[in-house]
Write a structure and sequence with these properties.
The protein has a single domain, classed as Up-down Bundle (Four Helix Bundle (Hemerythrin (Met), subunit A)). With 188 residues, it is mostly helical. It contains five helices and no strands.
């Protein structure tokens, strides 16, 4: 699968989750919690594959900088902010008075980021990398989705090689935390 197609599909998945959240009423606490847990997972995986594979490929192709390289730097900063909000939501009770407001801010930030990527960055990347490279990159990103962190780690490095090393450990830790949470829910 083409890397840009994969990322756009992720964007659609997350937008669908946002719309599900927006339709939930104030008393749908459990449903809100479930949707936000999926949002946290989807966005964490998406950010990880972009930071580990997609953005480095774009920066490498834009050897001497340029608009695409500048957009990648801005995207990394946007990811950083989103990961902090995700980290705050991860494990936060949907009954908290600021929960809905925090999810709303998250959605606004992500929608802004997606709009810029799809409108400005992706057309440039298509020209820079070409179809064959985007297909290869997409395959690598699909494989990476199985091994990257599934929760936000805003203090971890967001560029190689640091994110590759930290990401491996974080992914293992995330699997343990997820298993622990499932076990606690089963007993509750």
């Amino acid at each position: 699968m083409n890397a840009i197609t994969l990322l756009k599909n992720d964007h659609k998945t997350v937008e669908g989750l946002f719309k599900r959240f927006e339709k939930l009423g104030p008393r749908a606490v459990k449903s809100k919690q479930d949707v936000v847990e999926r949002i946290v997972r989807e966005l964490s995986i998406h950010a990880a594959i972009e930071e580990m594979l997609f953005y480095p490929a774009v920066r490498e192709a834009a050897e001497d900088g340029g608009p695409a390289a500048d957009m990648v730097l801005e995207s990394l900063e946007e990811h950083h902010i989103v990961k902090w909000v995700l980290a705050e939501l991860d494990g936060m009770s949907a009954e908290h008075e600021r929960y809905d407001a925090k999810v709303t801010v998250l959605m606004e930030n992500v929608r802004h980021h997606v709009k810029e990527e799809e409108k400005d960055l992706f057309p440039q990347v298509t020209k820079l990398l070409g179809r064959a490279r985007l297909d290869d990159l997409g395959e690598a990103m699909m494989k990476a989705k199985k091994t990257v962190p599934t929760r936000p780690h805003p203090r971890s490095p967001d560029e190689p090689p640091g994110n590759l090393v930290a990401g491996a450990g974080a992914a293992l830790m995330d699997k343990a935390v997820t298993a622990g949470r499932k076990l606690v829910r089963q007993k509750a």
